[in-house]
Amino acid sequence: MAPKTKHFIVIANMKMNVIQDSYLQHYKNLSLTDDNYITVLMPPNPFIITLHNILGKDNVKYLGSQSIFSEKEGSYTGGTSIDMINNYISYVLVGHSERRIFFAENNTDIQKQLKLVIDSNLIPILAVGESSEDKNNNNFQSVIREQLSILNDIQTSNPIYIAYEPIWAIGTGDVADSKYIEDAATFVLNEIKNINPSLDVSLIYGGSVTENNIMDIYNISNVNGVLVGGASADISKFSNILQKIKEAN
Ligand code: PGA
């Protein structure tokens, strides 16, 4: 395979799995970048500043948030405003299926979050993906098209990452096969060209990524990164993933 033209991005979506901030000390020893990859670490929001302090302020380019609320300030119990964390991070994930399902976030909320991220000059990662029901009913294209439609009036010259994450592959061990991911990536990238050709988009994959399947995904030509969930909250599994990519030529 021809070498990747961009750094492959490896995003650690630790979810609510790292529940003690002391565990984050282990991430200090990771090689956060290499000839082949860059890493983005997304601890739970209350630990962002802890990890920022552990890594040092020069490494803010390797830190992100798993979620923000769609308003900047006000009576929103339990919400995290982008303004509380934007000095400590460079990326924000929006639209993850767990936010859509468990926190009832809809396309309107997700578009507001996307705009807040862009207005703060941070890099957004928009997650999209179909359920197994959508897949079985051949609704893949309409579901993804609807999720991507929020890009229509987005204006930015900053890069945007689209994380294609089939819901049936998240946390199940049932990783999508390479051909399926490649076809989905082609569909997503073409769709975005129709919706908003001005955007600088990179496609990444998420869903049961491990050290055992990372190289299959790395070798898919139109995939430029991965969103790692479960395996990112275990330092040895996560470093093994990075090590495999480091050894790729
Ligand atoms: P997983 O999660 O790697 O545990 O499947 C991926 C994600 O939800 O980002």
Quick description:
This protein is an alpha/beta fold and 249 residues long. It is built from nine helices and eight strands. The protein has an eight-stranded parallel beta sheet with strand order 2-1-8-7-6-5-4-3.
SSE inventory with pairings:
Elements: E1 8-13, E2 37-42, H1 48-55, E3 64-65, H2 82-85, E4 91-94, H3 97-102, H4 107-119, E5 123-128, H5 132-136, H6 140-148, E6 159-164, H7 178-195, E7 200-206, H8 214-218, E8 225-228, H9 235-247
Parallel strand pairs: 1-2, 1-8, 3-4, 4-5, 5-6, 6-7, 7-8
Helix pairs in contact: 6-7
Largest sheet: 8 strands, parallel
Number of strands: 8
The helix/strand order is EEHEHEHHEHHEHEHEH
The CA-CA distance between the termini, in Å, is 9 Å
Quote the beta fraction: 15-25%
Low-confidence stretches: none
| Cα Rg | 17 Å
Bound molecules: 2-phosphoglycolic acid
Helix content: 25-40%
Mean pLDDT: 96
The count of helical stretches stands at: 9
Structural class call reads: alpha/beta
Q: Strand arrangement, largest sheet?
A: 2-1-8-7-6-5-4-3
Dominant shape: globular
Task: Describe this protein's structure.
The protein has helices at 48-55, 82-85, 97-102, 107-119, 132-136, 140-148, 178-195, 214-218, 235-247; strands at 8-13, 37-42, 64-65, 91-94, 123-128, 159-164, 200-206, 225-228. The longest helix is centred in the last third of the chain and has 18 residues, at 178-195. Helix 6 (140-148) packs across helix 7. Helix 2 (82-85) links the parallel strand 3 (64-65) and strand 4. The protein has an eight-stranded parallel sheet. 33% of the residues lie in helices and 16% in strands. The mean pLDDT is 96. It has 249 residues and is of the alpha/beta class. The protein is built from nine helices and eight strands. The radius of gyration is 17 Å and the shape is globular. The structure holds 2-phosphoglycolic acid. 2-phosphoglycolic acid binds next to strand 8.
